[in-house]
Amino acid sequence: GAALDRLTQELLRLMRTDRVLAIWLFDESGSMKDDQEELKGRIHRVYEELKIVQDDADKLNGRRRRKSSRNDDILLTAIASFGAGFHVHTPKPTSDSKRLLQAIDKIPIDRTGKENMCTAILAALKQFGSLSRGRKIALIVVSDESGDDGDPYLPPGVDRVEETLAALKARRAPAYILGREAVFGNFYAYVRW
What predicted TM-score, i.e. pTM, was given to this entire model? Predict the structure, then answer.
């Protein structure tokens, strides 16, 4: 709950200066199914809040919105998932929260046990980069592990963490990781107390 509230604030911050394409990447592992169901209800609430803010901003700026103009929406969203592979559930980004919830329902369970997070982030940037059309891309990764393709002990060229970070920096795309103990590209989390 607190993480999604913070994410809402981050999206609002981005929306103040740019039109935004939010790409949600869901982990396909069986352990995430309960979390996906819980997130569905919260995501709907987040998008309703963001829609109210967008409508208020339009009224304040004296803009009238056309129902048919998808490109005028400040926030568009795409849903994808990853396991051993990468799957797109919304081929075209949308602002329709019902379509987003239906896309989350279509996320399969990957039985391989692989979670190629870095590969999925790179694939999402490639897939949706051309569709962003001047929008700021924000990636939201929902996972309960740090991924299998970010192992610093793998041979050179196999570890994708640095490649992924470079791609995110090149696009100036923030990545938000939601999960229990997942720490991007690390085996350990350090807590100061």
Answer: 0.80
